[in-house]
Amino acid sequence: MKNRPLYLKKLIEFKDKEQIKVITGIRRCGKSKLLDLFIEYLKSEGVASNHIIKYDFESLKHAGMTYQTLYDEIIKKTKKIKGKVYLFFDEVQRVPQWELAINSFRVDLDADIYITGSNAYLLSSQLSTYLSGRYVEIKMLPLSFKEFLDFHEFVGDMSINQKFALFLKFGGMPVLTGYNFNEELINQVLDGILSTVLVKDVIGQAEVRDVDLLNKILRYLADNIGNITSINNIKNFLISEQRLDKKTTAGTVDNYINLLEKAFIFYNILRYDIKGKDYLKTNNKYYIVDLGLRNHLLGFKEMDRGHVLENVVFLELVRRGYQVCIGTNVGKEVDFIASKVNEKLYIQVTETLMDKQTRERELSSLKTIKDNYPKFVLSMDEVFTNTNDEGIQIVNIIDWLLASQD
Length: 406
Fold this sequence. Notes:
By secondary structure, this protein is of the alpha/beta class.
């Protein structure tokens, strides 16, 4: 079983802390395997097997289980166990009112609790009511490029650029390991993943009356990653292309987009006015959780490589624990402002700086920012690697990705 050190480290850091550990992320991104990795770690640390209890609610074995039967089963299993027990509940949202049982385990048992879920309803108001301040969310994504290199086997003397091209094409779903980059087979797997996500985590979680509209919005967002847009822009475009009934409201479009976000398919990124120090309410950007899913929907498109690279950088910043927004400053756009406690980065992403006009545009956006936080331009160029222009660091994207922290 391949390791996911970034996420495993987070679980280890929170081990035996009172907070319930909530692992969220799109289906098939590796949440269940992460639980298995952590269970292996616990056993290696001397935790007895009978102190570890795991439920996978995707299994028919637990179909129809209620929060009360779950509670009764766990109480019965732990009755004679002395000391701390470790409870794992995979896809727990399939149990109605599951939060009642989880909260009771926290109160009634000496338990360290871990749960996973594939949509943001897991962190709904009900959970907040019962577990307010008592849980920590660990946001899981598909494989990073560094993990992709570790998970896959590559034939022949393949360059790092060729491997990166495969990553951009097929994405980072861990389940694709072993398919040897067979495009036909991988497309079938990705189709199954996407269909399951839409059926179980979008349509199954809300009253979706127009599935055709949902699919049109899905494809529109996938086709426009990294483009500044708005709900009205999306609605008007779909109407102009005769893909949308003129009677459809912006509210309906907004609701369907929210459903896709809650299923962790897309991320909506706000714009921030650097000079005015305030978030703007309109014209955000969307990025997709996995480029393989995008290419499955649209086909591999070389023409928007710049936005594809932006998408990769955005996901990597999220993996590294940054809060990410888009910057705007005196009429110029900054691709990403990435913030942590006492840390901030400004990042521009471009395929190449070889063209003088492109170089001046990308650098000028950062040069208008007068504070002293680090500023980067990430590109696919090799000739500019690790150079500096008036304090702006110019770094090769692949080098930056491979320097990610475990």
